[in-house]
Q: What sequence folds into this?
């Protein structure tokens, strides 16, 4: 009995000692803020099913922060300080992460949000704190309902992706198509708009085959979608499942054309790396287009250390989230989220002098000029719900182991 | 900071409820249940779908009842199986529930999930802060469940369960209906898991199938193992420690500049794994071991006291 008691005591002492560094950690951010830094937070996926997308977003966000701070910071020489948390591809973990950013690091922005479930679960928490939420996810529901004017989406909505897919089908001359789609909120929401647009363009959707994420095999679903030999199949995947599906299509020797999404069949070059040129040959894929031809985008790709012509989808979103926040704060002359949120459209939407370099844009805002900021992921124009305006989609065809430009649909 | 800790405390309450239920089924009755997450999901969806229609209390009761009924049903089908086979059946059940929820969109809204779930005492929350009200609610619920389960553990029912765990044949020879007792243990555990699911839904106010993956089951087992199998007090300590470890490691990158977020996310899960292994080596009976209850403590004393 006494023995057990002693062990307990020693353990609690050790546990207490172990907690000390944590307690110390809790103090640091508060001190940092007192020194005048402007804290911003991102919730990004580093682990779980979508963990592959987080690191590039982090890199882009850190890049822009170092540029802003290198040029003298914002709000009269204050540095931007970035806090990044892992979403673990989990809605529950994202709520805890957002709460940590809001309450411990006192951030003014909780951005990132690659996945829709994470964004939807964190939304009430961020709105309750009256801070700004910026999204890189597509489910329509996030900007529906109460937003307090504090939610901004840098990504195209699901209901914009669908019709764009139908236009690609028209372009490649596909009339009879089937859909092969993953059950997830981003993708499910684009099926109906796609069907409606196909009907309008005189096409026909013969079958919709849904599959669950993380299946061991996709053979049955691929057979079902390609079996009736449609002109083309609209394959709506994320990266890991597209890798398996494309191999399955290759093995089956199906002749229908494949139109897919950049989220799966490009993923910033990761798809080609994973499957090789033979399997990927002839796959079309579309994604919301970054300003491919602008010098600032070329510079962004170079700074990211990626090969020329890489189409960044999510890293550009993270870059833009930080840029927009810095510009809006500078415009509103305050870090108060409820105030600078109103400045976002002032610095992002036309009219105004077009600018795409963040350092230059900050200077212009300081000089009181009316600017129209264009980002690395989109033109950064927002409607009254906070959704992106003027979304055009960039279509590429994989040929000879490379993504080649096929066209732009809007 | 306080509000963040409140959030963590609420998540601990949910984890502790799930853990308490598993502690009854596995810790005390010796029944392996790898389908924990299925029952939590059923509770969460029942609460989310029913609360707008009938209010939170009936919805929560329904969540517990539905989960208990399914739990008892599953037990009736499978409880005669040996330990390992029961584990497989329950594991399968958990996956089936998730896939049904994901694909039966007419009822559950499928992958899109259910947003804007009304919270209990929402109007009260508006005046004094939503989380403050919710933490009281969650702690109250945890206290009620804890007291009920602790009472059960001390009752003849609890003693019979532990006897079955230690040797089912002997218990059966003593005239106990082992089969019925096991079904009962499963049903009560299922009810508590359902209530935990409801609490989860009320706190997040948004649920979707991706929240109910087998990791929930794994965390419940970690909490039971870390706390001490069979001990309800230990479970509370265990659930708290697991969450402290999970959330505490978030702060490592803020203090140690060499670790960046990408490495940390890989390290965190590794650290938790290493922590559990160390605990099992150093303290296999758990942080607060199951109390040894002797016959002399419950039987009338023959010699008239010490």
A:
């Amino acid at each position: 009995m006494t023995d057990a008691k002693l062990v307990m005591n020693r353990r609690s002492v050790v546990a207490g000692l172990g907690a000390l560094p944590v307690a110390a950690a809790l103090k640091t951010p508060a001190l940092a803020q007192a020194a005048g830094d402007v804290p911003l937070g991102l919730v990004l996926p580093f682990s779980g099913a979508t963990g592959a997308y987080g690191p590039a977003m982090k890199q882009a966000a850190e890049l822009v922060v170092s540029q802003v701070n290198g040029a003298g910071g914002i709000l009269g020489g204050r540095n931007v300080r970035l806090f990044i948390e892992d979403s673990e591809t989990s809605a529950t973990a994202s709520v805890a992460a957002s709460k940590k950013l809001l309450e411990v690091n006192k951030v003014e922005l909780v951005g990132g949000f690659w996945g829709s479930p994470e964004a939807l679960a964190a939304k009430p928490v961020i709105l309750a704190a009256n801070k700004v939420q910026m999204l890189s996810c597509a489910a329509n529901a996030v900007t529906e309902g109460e937003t307090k004017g504090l939610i901004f989406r840098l990504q195209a909505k699901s209901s914009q992706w669908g019709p764009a897919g139908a236009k690609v089908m028209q372009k490649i001359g596909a009339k009879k198509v089937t859909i092969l789609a993953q059950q997830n909120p981003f993708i499910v929401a684009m099926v109906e708009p796609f069907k409606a647009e196909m009907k309008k363009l005189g096409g026909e959707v013969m079958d919709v085959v849904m599959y669950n994420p993380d299946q061991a095999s996709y053979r049955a679903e691929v057979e079902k979608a390609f079996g009736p030999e449609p002109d083309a199949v609209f394959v709506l995947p994320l990266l890991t499942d597209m890798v398996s599906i494309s191999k399955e299509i290759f093995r089956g020797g199906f002749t229908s054309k494949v139109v897919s999404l950049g989220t799966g069949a490009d993923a910033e070059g990761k798809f080609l790396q994973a499957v090789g040129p033979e399997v990927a040959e002839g796959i079309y894929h579309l994604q919301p287009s970054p300003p491919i031809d602008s010098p600032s985008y070329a510079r962004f790709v170079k700074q990211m250390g990626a090969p020329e012509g890489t189409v960044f989808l999510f890293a550009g979103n993270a870059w833009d989230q930080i840029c927009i926040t810095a510009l809006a704060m500078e415009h509103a002359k305050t870090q108060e989220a409820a105030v600078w949120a109103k400045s976002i459209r002032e610095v992002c939407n036309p009219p105004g002098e077009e600018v795409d370099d963040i350092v230059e844009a900050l200077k212009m805002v300081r000089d009181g000029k009316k600017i129209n900021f264009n980002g690395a992921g989109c033109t950064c124009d927002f409607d009254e719900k906070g959704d992106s305006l003027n979304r055009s989609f960039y279509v590429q065809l994989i040929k000879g182991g490379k993504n080649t430009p096929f066209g732009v649909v809007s | 900071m306080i509000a963040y800790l409140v959030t963590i405390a609420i998540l601990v309450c949910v984890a502790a409820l799930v853990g308490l239920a598993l502690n009854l089924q596995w810790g005390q009755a010796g029944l392996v249940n790898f389908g924990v997450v299925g029952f939590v999901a059923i509770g969460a969806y029942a609460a989310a779908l029913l609360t707008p229609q009938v209010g939170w209390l009936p919805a929560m009761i329904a969540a517990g009842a539905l989960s208990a009924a399914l739990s008892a049903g599953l037990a009736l089908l499978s409880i005669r199986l040996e330990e390992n086979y029961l584990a497989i059946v329950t594991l399968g059940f958990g996956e089936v529930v998730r896939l049904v929820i994901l694909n039966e969109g007419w009822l559950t809204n499928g992958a899109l999930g259910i947003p804007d779930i009304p919270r209990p005492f929402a109007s009260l929350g508006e005046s004094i802060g939503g989380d403050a009200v919710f933490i009281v609610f969650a702690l109250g619920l945890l206290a009620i469940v804890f007291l009920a389960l602790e009472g059960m553990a001390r009752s003849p029912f609890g003693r019979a369960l532990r006897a079955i765990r230690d040797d089912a044949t002997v218990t059966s020879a003593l005239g106990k209906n082992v089969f019925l007792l096991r079904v009962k243990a499963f049903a009560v555990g299922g009810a508590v898991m359902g209530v935990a699911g409801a609490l989860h839904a009320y706190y997040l106010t948004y649920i979707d199938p991706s929240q109910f993956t087998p990791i929930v089951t794994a965390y419940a087992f970690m909490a039971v193992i870390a706390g001490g199998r069979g001990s309800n007090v230990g479970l509370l300590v265990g659930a708290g420690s697991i969450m402290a470890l999970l959330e505490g490691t978030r702060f490592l990158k803020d203090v140690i500049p060499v670790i960046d977020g990408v490495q940390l996310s890989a390290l965190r899960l590794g650290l938790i794994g290493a922590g559990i292994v160390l605990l099992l080596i150093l303290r296999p009976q758990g942080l607060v071991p199951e109390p040894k209850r002797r016959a002399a403590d419950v039987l009338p004393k023959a010699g008239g006291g010490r």
